[in-house]
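Hello support,

Our group uses your service weekly, and this is the first time we've seen a run hang past the timeout. The protein is Bifunctional adenosylcobalamin biosynthesis protein. I'm not sure whether the cause is the sequence or the server load. Input pasted verbatim:
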Amino acid sequence: MTLVLGGARSGKSRYAEGLIEAQPGPWRYLATAQGWDDEMRARIAQHRARRPPPWETVDAPRDLASAIRQAPAGRPVLVDCLTLWLTNAMLDEAADLAAEVDGLVEACRAAAGPLVLVSNEVGLSIVPENALARRFRDEAGRLHQRLAAIADRAVLVVAGLPMILKGDPAA
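Update from on-call engineer: The timeout came from a worker crash unrelated to the input. Re-ran successfully.
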């Protein structure tokens, strides 16, 4: 399992796609984005256009743990992105966010094939001014720490350049 973190437009998704494409296909892409407006729908279309067959896209905006568990054994899986999943859960007012995070972590730990997780590093900026934004930043930071602890590799992508935080740089 590889956790790929980075800021907006850092190159993290392209880097993660390259990690998956280095594995034998077909590849599964678990998409967490939802097209709430025209701009977001255009972003989703742009991402999909970058992934022709043998990519298979599965929409998993909320039940990401199940989507990971349902991936065929041995098939490389890319999750993009965890912070959108967390946003969806928080805006959906998940009854027990901690239990959902626990389920996601366990699904990642038990993944039946190569798994690459993409997420936005949001903890490098100022303290947000409102309670929801502070909670989101805190929840994302805790999620990243838990996943990094069980990951084989953790990578921070800055300006398109991967910085290996954990694991074998040659892998």
